[in-house]
């Protein structure tokens, strides 16, 4: 996907927060797999940056230990040794200008190399880091900067981050990560929609009854209670991942797969989302918080009894909402979004429910026949299923649902890239298609903010749900009012 298929052979990938959880659990393992597949730039250098005083060997040893622990049986010493040869380290305190000296001299010693600065630190450091890089002339035209979520906690703070980073890097140099866009089934949805003539005539209000997007986690807040309590499910999941998925389902065909053609279309969808404010918030949104229940067959505490959660917190661990897109294509089609912690299983899926046949010739009423459905699964497995009705073998004409499984693992035997592999490769190649543009991000904040404001102003607590269930009863009622049900309830 994209225009440039090869990264520049000479590239420095600088990971701020290079000793952190994200770097060790996701970024380094992704780079090892890319190297195994021959997908890294020929002369790549990966420079970890953090405050911990380490030299190159100590960083390599620390990284080996952490990556091995994370990969378990998949850790391959020979592959590690090949990869470790690319690793270097610079000790920098992002807030201390003098400490950039070592990093600057490493980079300036090879001025011809392209540079990618991956900011895997708290976002409050983004502005300082970019300013310091600029002061030392490291933000050349051939440099890029990668921003991890969370990009702010509301519109104003996200604008402040964007202004600060934008002061030193042009928009075409800024790669805002939404790792859901890096998932293979999401790109396959683009391929299915725009590579086949079959779906386009059906992909509209006349044929689609509703769309459901679910990202459910089995885990609770684990040890990150203090962080999560400041954020909640709306900011952590809906504002970014779920709205991006909605855009991929709903956008008009872009004129090409180029970054701005795709992002222009996604932006139009975000701007066409009907605002939910005032009394509508109570009708069209559900916020929940888990109470004690079970996960993986074991009892687990409720949110308020988790570590580092302030007493009486009203932070939501579950959101369901009914969105509508005011365009000719989608007028009147509800898009139900749902995300939560402590759900029965870890699932990420998009379900497109088509309308029933207008008249059944088979004796059963049209409504009693299962309508066609497309299920795009991102987790736990990656697949796309088309649910159809077929005749059950035998002498009577009895219809039963069958699933046409577009099993990519089966069809394409080659290994599929995970999201961070895909996105790291795209950053190194300079392909922005799967990254979020500033105006998209801000349009998403504009839509979710009035909902969060209404929740904040309300005296009602989030609805309680038992850990290990699919959320509060009002989540089912949200669809029930349209005579519908969530996919797993059907
Ligand atoms: P983390 O484990 O706490 O790591 C933070 C990293 O930043 C460490 O390497 C730390 O090393 C470094 N650091 C902190 N303050 C610094 C400073 N002043 N100057 C230079 N380096 C500094 O955090 P993380 O989980 O990796 O997450 C990093 C960012 O990515 C966060 O914003 C997080 O929200 C986001 N994110 C994380 C994940 C994930 O799965 N972990 C997923 C999506 C987004 P020193 O303490 O030695 O400086």
Description:
- It is globular, with a radius of gyration of 24 Å.
- It has 490 residues and is α/β, with parallel strands linked by helices.
- The two termini are 36 Å apart.
- It is built from 15 helices and 17 strands.
- α1 (21-36) packs across α13, α6 (155-166) runs antiparallel to α14 and α9 crosses α14.
- The chain has helices at 21-36, 56-71, 77-84, 101-108, 126-135, 155-166, 184-195, 225-229, 232-250, 259-272, 279-284, 408-411, 419-429, 438-457, 473-480, and strands spanning 10-16, 43-50, 87-91, 114-119, 143-147, 174-176, 208-216, 285-291, 293-295, 298-300, 318-323, 335-340, 347-354, 373-379, 383-391, 399-406, 463-466.
- β15 and β16 (399-406) form a beta hairpin.
- The model has no long low-confidence stretch (mean pLDDT 94).
- It folds into two domains: 10-177, NAD(P)-binding Rossmann-like Domain (Rossmann fold); 181-416 and 438-489, 2-Layer Sandwich (Dihydrodipicolinate Reductase, domain 2), CATH 3.30.360.
- The strands form three sheets. The chain has a nine-stranded mixed β-sheet, with helices on both faces. Strands 3-2-1-4-5-6 form a six-stranded parallel β-sheet.
- NADP nicotinamide-adenine-dinucleotide phosphate is lined by residues 16-23, 50-52, 92-95, 120-123, 125, 148-150.
- NADP(+) binds at residues 51, 149.
- Its EC number is 1.1.1.49.
- Belongs to the glucose-6-phosphate dehydrogenase family.
- It comes from Aquabacterium olei.
